Amino acid sequence: MISQSSSLPRRSRIPFGTASLALVGGIVLGLALREWIPSQTPPILVTASVIAILDFFPIYLDPSGELRLTVVIAIPMLVLFGWPAALTGTALGMAVGLLHRHAREVFTTSSERLASLIVAAAFATAFSTRWPHDLVGAVVVASLTYTVFRTLIISARMHAEEAITWPRAISFLVSATFLHLAIFAGVAAIAVWIVSNDLSTTSRLLVPVLAAGVTLQLYLTRFSRGREQRRVLAAVSVLAAAVDAKDPYTADHSAEVAGLSRRVARILNLDEPEVHRVYLAGLLHDVGKTAVPPAILLKPGKLTDDEWQIMQSHVEAGVRIVDSIFGLSQISPIVGASHERLDGRGYPKGLSGDEIPIGSRINLVVDAYNALTTNRPYRPGRSPEEALVELAAHSGTQFDPRVVDALRMALGYSQTLPSTKNEPTWLGLLRQPAFALLWGGELISFLGDQVFFIALSLWIYKLTGSAAMLATTLIAATVGQGLLGFFAGALVDRQDRRGVLIATDIGRAAAVALLPFALLRSIPAGLALLIVLNVGTVFFRAAVYALLPSVVRRDDLATANALFQATERIAEVVGGVLGGAIVLSLGYQVVFYIDAISFLVSASCVGLMPVAWKAGLEIAPRKQISTEIGEGLRFIWRTPLHRILALLILPGYLTLAFDALQTPMIVKTAGLSVVAYGVINSVLGVGKLVAAIMLTGAGKRWVSLQFIVTMYLLTALSVALFGVSKIYVALIGVAFLHGFGNIATTISNLTMSMAYTPSGILGRLIASRQVFIAIVKVFAMLVFGYIADFAGPPFALITLGLVSGVGVAIVWFGNARQLHNLVGAQAPGGAGE
Amino acid sequence: MAELFKDFPRKARIALVIGVLSYLVGAVWAVHDSRPLAVSGLVAIFTCAGLVKRVPNPSGGANVPLLGLWIVAALLWRPSEVWFGVGVGSFIGLLIFWRTEVWRAALNMVLWGPPAAAAALLAQMILAKNPLGLLPPFIAGGLAIVTFRILNMGLFAGYRSLRFGNAFFADWGLNVIANWPSQLLSAPLAIVAAIVAARTGTVAWRLVLTALPAVTLPFARQELAYYFRSQQMLDEIVEAVVRALEGVEPHARVHGDRVSTIAVATGRRLRMSGRELLGLRLAARLHDVGLLAVEGVPSREDQLAAISGRILERFPDPMIAEIVRARQERWDGKGGPDHKSGAVIPLGARILAAADVYDCALEGLQPFTAPHSRQEAASHLISLAGTVLDPKVVMALIHVAMEKAPEFEAAAG
């Protein structure tokens, strides 16, 4: 393989990962050596020598990469002679690789193989203790574990080394290696089956060797082919080097363009053979320049028309050269169109838009980026940021905007890719691994929470039989928000947000898992754990919302928020039903463990996200935490938009008192049954869901101050109407409206907060908002609950609606002038940056 | 393919006729000594092996990865059955499926049948001692391969020496040891088959076991085709580089081709292995690739060598870059860029240096002002031997240059 350019940003988790694997391998090897007895010497030596030979013959994978045949000998030896002999022999044999391969490569691949083999050994040993006579079964188990673990490790390394998302790396490995690994495992199983009834050491040694030999015989031609193909790749890069050498300022230009093009192609999700073609075309995109005289190629000033003609002819010359090479003709369309512009004003054919192969569009952008960032005699190279700005300025005319975005992502300047126009935004969002994982993790832990709360309430009531205790419990489960909201915001702005997510997930998992023990022993201890749990949730939510803008493009924020709300509403319904069902069938405790597992799943989802650690953080000197909280509040007060949004909370969210007023209204005043109460509540939920789904579809079109105010007014109106409704149907309709307005304001509000806030302060902003809302909610419930007791629910509801509506209107018109400017500038939801 | 039997040299024709006749005599004896089912089955299997299409080999001829199949036959069947089955089966297969001329099919019948039978003879002797043991099949497999290769390549070398006048022993020896790892690795399937056959026994079973490895042939063939295609691709990419070089230095192609021809012939004479020769050939063709990198011709040749070497470092075999980098080193250590001397300089680089000087002298390229005759060029080389060039290499080069002068002239044209 040609080494990738070192100028590309790399995440440096490889040495750490490999080193830890090697450490594990070393420790287990030490254990294995302690078990050594003289009779193990022959199997160790046989394994070592066969592995050493097999290592000379890596199997070539299409279109790149290689696979070694370790499984064929190591696993039969593992099953027949026990893990100490197999592991020692394998390690010895792999060490021989130092004689003919790079030490670093040997170290990396050997640690990976050894670690996978150790896991396989553990499983095989466990299997053998249970079924000592089923040797073939042990081989199957060992091969399966080996394959799975190996795939996980290697895909992790690919994910860390190159810009390949983890799922993609896994699917690549599965498609490229699983057939071969299955063949190796089959051969190993047959070998063990042959000797399973034969206890003589000679046959147990010889048959696995024979199996390895058969595999080698079957794969020998493939090996030769692979060796030759590597040589071809090298020759292609010699050709590229010959081109680059013409211009002293562009040494390694072609290799850099090729390497970066490959990353971009993978981010754009091209299939792997196409990625390889883009890579080759990147190497050879300038090959025609060998036909251009250096006088023209290196001329510092402007070219005359004639010279420009000759310069342009290099594309056709390149196509001729590529076509003349057998097997490279597939890339000639890519090379031939590598100077076409998106708007059709390029050369030689003047193709436009989708007529230009995607590979050419990638090569053109990467080529331009590389040219901009390298030093020239007449100007120094620009910084990557400047180059990206320059590219963005020409994107849409000269460059494909999607490719420019992908390049930005490949260089580590953003985490997401805009979706294609043909599919709905939310689908595009879910296709992005970063968002999908964040969403999936959040959804799973939210679902776990819903299930958990059902079980918790039921269990507490069963344990204590006291409604007061139940209320205390529920307060304990919500107290964190008000107490710690501000701190959560400040912490999320200062710590790595992904780290906070993972830490709170793990902490919550531990708390939930401990809860059954605590509750059974002392209720106060359980309550303490519940508070811990809730604090964790407070931090988690703040971090999720603060991280979201680093994961999703600004234009997609509305859709992302709406999608979160929609799925959470569904999870509420499903979680309730599910929780009841699980409690009935499996008992209370299981639910707690399920919740704990859901937190762990959420943590690993966050861990897998292809997003840089510390995304969105501002590096600023540390201050007192109170100072930082103050900064957040000052930011809200000084920014007109956020001040208005914050001011709107007081009248707008008064309507949350509706939750407290609706029950007496329905049951007492309207005199409806409990069933009707349930129906109205469900309709409320349906309204929320419909709003969330509609906003998921509408995206940023519905994100504006006017929309928020309209929805506040709609909610206030619905509250007032609820107060005057007497008939069942009217109540249902109004309930729907209320749910709709409530969620629509929430989504729109969140999105505006995210879209117009610097990332470094976002955590504090979001958390402060939640605190304001919590305070308003408590205040509203107390005041209007009292009014309802005093003057009856209808009166309280009508008053609530009126107060809220009038309040919103006052804030709106009171800030009319500032609003006028704001609406003009920002209302459409912020197109462009 | 248009060669005709009557174009053969007289000796070769007589030898082939004698060979075919002796084979047939043997075949008559063999039929008496064999089981009918076994013989007819083997003939059928080897006829069907002809269904696997040949892969054109860029260096001439065509290949099929069949070696494994012969070894299976040798380990599973009686020598007489192998003699008849393999020979006749191959004859029919070639005739029907490959559509070769009758003489070529007959030639292959003689080249393959008897060596396989000899291998079978040895193998059966070993297997008979301990039919159910595990070790004997390993030994028998190894011996069968060695016997088969030696006899097969001996017959083949004999044919070529009679037909084309190649040196018999050199041809034989080189071909027997060529690619030995892949030859040894054609045994394992046969060993497995022999072990299984010893436990199941019947003729029908043995036929199945013989036919099974044939199933893998199409895959092996496909990979072989990819392999040759890659070789061809490599050639064409090198060709593209040479074409680019031609734009800078018009003599580059002719000079590079001639230097590579002389260098490879010299290297072969100095017993370099096939792989080394391949590297030497690439290095010789691309030895001035640095010209692409510099403006005009650089003042010092060793700088050019260093630049060329750096470009060629991308090849996976480091030998190529080493050869090109060290080609301006002198035998007495006064050269550049690394001031190596004597045998520390890679052999390929010493050969390349001598070949380069020789061809520049013949063609009158720099530093020579006018073309020299072969004798003048040779005496110039001798004058440099021991100071600039390796004397051993100079001797070998002059030897092959005088011996093969007409061929080189043809190559240059």
Give an overview of the whole structure.
The complex is a heterodimer of chains A (833) and B (413). By secondary structure, chain A is mainly α. Chain A has 34 helices and two strands. Chain A has helices at residues 14-34, 41-54, 70-81, 83-96, 103-130, 135-161, 166-195, 201-245, 253-267, 272-284, 294-297, 305-312, 314-324, 332-336, 358-373, 384-394, 401-410, 425-431, 433-464, 467-476, 479-494, 497-521, 523-551, 557-586, 588-608, 625-638, 640-652, 658-669, 674-698, 705-724, 728-755, 762-791, 793-814, 816-826; strands at 59-60, 66-67. Chain A has a two-stranded antiparallel ribbon with strand order 1-2. The longest helix of chain A has 45 residues, at 201-245. In chain B, helix 3 packs across helix 5, helix 14 runs antiparallel to helix 15 (319-325) and helix 17 (374-384) packs antiparallel against helix 18. Chain B is elongated and about 80 Å long. The relative contact order of chain B is 0.07. The model of chain B has no long low-confidence stretch (mean pLDDT 82). Chains A and B meet through helix 8 of A and helix 9, helix 11 and helix 14 of B.
Strand numbers in spatial order across the main sheet of chain B: 1-2
Instruction: Give a count of the beta strands of chain B, DSSP E runs of length 2 or more.
Output: 2
In what order do the strands lie side by side in the largest sheet of chain A?
1-2
Radius of gyration of chain A over alpha carbons?
33 Å
The greatest interface here is: A-B, 43 and 50 residues
What is the beta-strand fraction of chain B? under 5%
Give me the number of helical elements of chain B. Answer: 19
Instruction: Give the oligomer, counting copies of the same chain as homo and different chains as hetero.
Output: heterodimer
Portion in helices of chain B: over 70%
Q: What value does the average pLDDT of chain B take?
A: 82
